[in-house]
Amino acid sequence: MVLALSVLIFLLLRLAPGDPIDAYINPSVPLSPQDLEALRLRLSLDQPLPIQYLGWLRAALSGDFGYSIQRSGVAVLPLVLGRVGPTVLLMGTGLAIAIVVGIAGGIVSAVRRNAGPDISLSVLSFVGISSPAFLTALLGLYFFSVLLRWAPSGGMQTPGTPFSVFDVLTHLILPACLLSIGHAAMIMRYMRSSLLEVLGQDYVRTARAKGVREFWVIMKHATRNALLPVITLIGSTIGIAVGGAIFLESVFNWPGMGLLLVNAVGTRDYPVIMGATLVVGACVILVNLLTDIAYAFVDPRVRVS
Amino acid sequence: MALTTSMGEGVPRTKGPLRRAFGRFIANRAARAGLVILIPILLAVSTYHLWWPIGPNAIDLRAMNKGPSTAHWLGSDGVGRDVMARVLQGGRISLIVAVGSVAISTVIGFLVGAIASFGGRVVDSTVMRLVDLAMTSPPVIFLLVLASIAGTGIMPTILVISLLSWPVLSRMVRARLMELRERDFVVAARGMGARMPHLLLRHGLPNSIDILVVYATLQIANAILLEAGLSFLGLGIPPPEASWGNMLNLARSTIVLEQYPWQWMFPGAALVLTVLAINFIGDGLRDAFDPRSDLN
Amino acid sequence: MGISRTARRLALAGLLIAGTAFATVAEAQSGKTITGGFDVGPGGLPKNFNPLVSTAGFTWLSTYFEPLVVWNAELTELKGSLAKDWKVSDDQLTYTFNLAKETWHDGKPFTSKDVKFTFDLARNKASGSLFAARLGDIQSVETPDDRTVVIKLSKPNGSFLAVITQVLILPEHALAGIAPEQLANSKWWSTTPVGTGPFKFKQYVTDQYVELSADDDYRGGKPKVDTLINRYFENPAAAVAALRAGEIQFTYVESDDAATFKNDSNFTLIEGGSYVVNYIGLNQKVDLFKDLKVRQAIMYAIDRNAIVESLYGGAAKVANCGYVAPHLVPEGLEPYAYDPEKAKALLAEAGWDKINGDKPITLLTYYGSPQAANVMAAIQSMLAQVGVNIVPRVVDTPTYNGIVYKQGTPDWNAFPMIYAGLQNGPNPAGLNPGLNKSQLPPAGFNTMRIEFDDLSAAFDAALGQTDPAKVNASWQDVCKAMNKDLPWATLWVANRYGVASKKLKDFVWTPAPAGGPYAAHPELWDIQ
Fold it and tell me: What is the reported pLDDT for B136?
């Protein structure tokens, strides 16, 4: 699968207009075409495509993913792997907030169905789903960083200071909160409808009839089962999330996978795009596996079989 | 009707399922609200050139960055273009892109899903491999690479969005039609030598129409958001053509964000309202098509 | 339920308050630090540390590497940097440089051998150097002693000194061990580079920022601040947000944003000419613009003064040839004042109806800023009024170059018109590659395939001018030929802006093309 993916992306890349050298030319400061040609030769961009691909594959199989074309002396593998951490941190925090808020909101919404809290939460969640991520990111940045100065405007740490967890947290909190909005809204919708369905089922009625307190009925019997579709949703979200949140990362300069890719595609940095594709593809497959395991953990029927 | 025969099991025959679904849809408050919001927007966007005097690309260097006034209801932008006209034209473009891309992706998604389920085991596994490939390839990469190949503009944007969104639908269609494959009437049709087009149109389509309608509606909302996002990254609809996405892109500049809020607030509000309304409608349709929703 | 919502709000508020507390802790740094977005904007080239392959970014690179000679901060004349002074022989073929006394950041002495090493490397294509062709006139680099370098040229080259401002001198002792082929991928550039400048490399946090620390024994005096940080931003808007949030003290800003800082007492707005002339290129390989009358009509149809006044806020100079610097512009140029009626008449005379009529013509550009979009909207609407129907098409730089600089035979109809810019100073020869018929691809960058004999002759004469007293007059002839033959519809030279916090003292920055290098004297920069 990963191999097929690499062929696909390789071919697609070569179809895109402009190559890494074209990305390097500043049209207002012309360089000599001969010098640029020499650069193309050095990067083997003049070779036929299959040979270029096989060359890349052979090197990649031996663990050599080459060097970023647009950076001085930066190897692709450490560069790409270095982006996994920040992306996982941002997406993880954002999703964690979203899961807590979304599930809590969904439960409240379902329990108070069609009452005031449900309606306001539902409207809020619909607005959350319907707002473009980059707009909330821009507005959040403007209000909390530029106007109120509560949080830094971007990056992952304060330049020039030694690494500290506090420092990273201050940079993390705003983008993570903004990121969670859309996901929380989605989870809330799913949780609400799934819980509503479960609440109508026989075993819930049985539990109520046994005299179990309503709170426990909801928390223990209903919620657990209602979580199943939500977990599938979260799983697929995580799969997508490894690719990074392009909009948030680019508005907040967060050094994650999404930003790396946006840049690499913008500068046609072929080795970086290929390396990132492989790493992200492998992560997606891994996450899908983990989702299946989580599913088994929550759903007793799967565990038995 | 083909629909009744296939969905008929266990459902009382007093009312057709379509009519029952329609009844449920109309009874849904949110869906009604969605229609009430969406219809005027659609009307305004599609007819504005008949009643609004200023064109979306008419510049006026003497009226740059002016706030809302009687001449420019929603103010003017950085070259003195009328924001009202641009919001409406932008809406037209955004909706054309959304509807166009959803139409294409629905057709591809349905065909792929249906062919996979009717085509036999070999076809099925090859096709589904492809779908898996399209789904595991990180959307970010796919999106960016596709967009840089296709270039910018209305047609390329439609293409990129539709290529990105069909795999989900084809999975849903396949899941629905797989149950059908071994059922008597399909086996019989096949035995009588029915060809693929016949199977697709007479059996596949009627049995997945509800999925298609719900998918198409919700996907239009997504496509509008995607177009805005692509334009924000500079990959969607390039200026001077107006689209909600590229108008919102202006908010990147702090001076526009702060001092000329009408330049981004109005397209932003129009976008959120439209997407919201479509989501309401889509949600209503989903509930309406779901026979279980009567139980709640 | 209400409780949950309140709780959510409380939690959010709590997190944000905690965040503020952390931010205050993080700000406590030791020593004086200047943080800026030095690679933001067209003069920057973030993530690149190898001066041999740099097409821009010299503002930052020259804080720790230095060239032999640099422009002064006004970009009007050259000054010594690592060369204390220099002599040029009367035949313009021999350049003798006297080197300053300086040590590399690792303590080794800087000598003429380093200069020779650097020039040899820069002329060696195997190193990936982008200077090989530009330094092609060098015959030999000799080092009579440790403090003297003699460079001999094979033919006089008026731009030689301007070119070598960008050849930053590299340490032989650190790089001689790396094969030229391996040099571009070497880790040295981003981990342990050693220069001679006022600051020395401390660390690079990949794709986020570069940190330099003061070189205490710099020959120009100990730098006033201890740390200099260059933060990377994805776009100027993000840098502006950081500037306004007080996180950085300097960045380049787009001219739209510059207006916000004009009356802000916390910031100083720095304005300077861009030395890039904007023009509409008219492809001579399509049948649209062969007639001079059509080209004149385009000039008359665009109200350049109105665009400069309204869209640039007056901060651009209308260009009637490729130059706007007073010493390069002769008297008596045709000003092509806005006259749509005359434009219509000229088009009618040229038979525009038959040439093209109102069929759409693509105007290709790589300028993606909101301001450029506004400019093109204005040009589109002005040309539409005289019956020329253009459709702007904005693409990213690689796509643009992929179309326009395509080898072999490009698709002419993909770029009948371009909206572009070309460097026209401080060295006026910058326009030659785009306009001289000797520079047709693949030899050069004359992508619009302009083959005008008078203009090419004027360029050749100016480039070959060995008499310093006549140089300006020769370039004025180039200007005259451009104004008469209109190879391009020249538009204007806009100003560019930087914004510095009022906390900075003695800070020098100018929007030099490719970032300079110019004498910025970072050792004198201070912060309150």
Answer: 65
The pair of structure tokens assigned to B50 is: 């008949």
Chain A hits for C397, CB-CB cut-off 8 Å, are 18, 22-23, 25-27
> Is any Cβ of chain C less than 8 angstroms from the Cβ of B240?
yes
Contact between C166 and C58 (Cβ < 8 Å): yes
Tokens for A149? 């100065």
Is residue C262 within 8 A of residue C453, CB to CB? The reply is no
Q: How confident is the model at residue A302 (pLDDT cuts 50, 70, 90)?
A: low
Please identify which residue in the block is written with the tokens 């999330």.
A241
Interface test with B, best of C311, C365, C419 (most B CBs within 10 A): C311
User: Could you report the per-residue pLDDT of C178-211, keeping only the tens digit for each?
Assistant: 999 888 889 999 999 999 999 999 999 988 999 9
Chain B residues with beta carbon closer than 8 angstroms to that of A258? 140
> Contact, C83 vs C111, CB < 8 A?
no
SS3 state of residue C35: strand
Chain B neighbours (≥3 Cβ pairs under 8 A) are: A, C
**Residue A63 near chain C (CB below 8 Å):** no
Contact C48 A155 (CB under 8 A): no
Chain segment A216-261, per-residue pLDDT in tens: 777 777 787 788 778 777 777 776 666 667 888 888 888 888 889 8
Any C CB within 8 A of B232 CB? no
Cβ separation A26–C23 shorter than 8 A: no
Q: Where are the beta strands (DSSP E) in C377-450?
A: 390-394, 417-423
Least confident residue range of A171-185, A216-230, C144-158, C501-515: A216-230
For C283-342, strand residue ranges (E) read 316-318
- Confidence tier at C15 by pLDDT (50, 70, 90): very low
Give backbone dihedrals phi and psi of A25, rounded to 5 degrees, phi first: -75, 130
Which of chain A's residues have a Cβ under 8 Å away from the Cβ of C227?
160
Which residues of C are less than 8 Å from B57 in CB distance? Answer: 377, 380-381
Are residues A76 and A264 in contact, defined by beta-carbon separation less than 8 angstroms?
no
* Residues B184-213: tens digit of each pLDDT: 777 777 777 777 777 777 777 888 888 888
Does any CB of chain B come closer than 8 Å to the CB of residue C396?
A: yes
- A125-151 b/e (C-beta count within 10 Å ≥ 16 → b): bbbbbbbbbbbbbbbbbbebbbeeebb
Chain A residues 197-256 with a CB less than 8 Å from chain C: 250-251, 253, 255
Which whole-number Å values give the CA distances from A271 to A5, A82, A193, B144, C333, in the listed order? 14, 15, 45, 15, 51
Structure tokens at C132: 């090989």
Confidence at B3, pLDDT banded by 50, 70, 90: very low
Cite the DSSP H helix spans in C49-179.
58-61, 112-123, 160-164, 172-175
**pLDDT band, residue C28 (cuts 50/70/90):** very low
B contact test, residue of A120, A124, A129, A144 with most B CBs within 10 A: A129
**ipTM for this model:** 0.83
- CB atoms C19 and A29 under 8 Å: no
Q: For C114-129, give the secondary structure using H, E and C.
A: HHHHHHHHHHCHHHCC
Q: Is it the case that residue B139 has pLDDT exceeding 70?
A: no
Chain C residues whose beta carbon lies within 8 Å of the beta carbon of residue A263: 234
Contacts of B234 in chain C (CB under 8 A): 368, 394, 396
pLDDT for C9 beyond 60: no
Question: Under DSSP, is residue A188 helix (H, G, I), strand (E, B) or coil?
Answer: helix
- Which chain B residues are closer than 8 Å to C307 by Cβ? 61
- Mutation test of the interface with chain B: which of C267, C310, C497, choosing the one with the most B Cβ atoms within 10 A? C310
Asked whether the CA dihedral C98, C100, C106, C109 is positive or negative, the reply is: positive
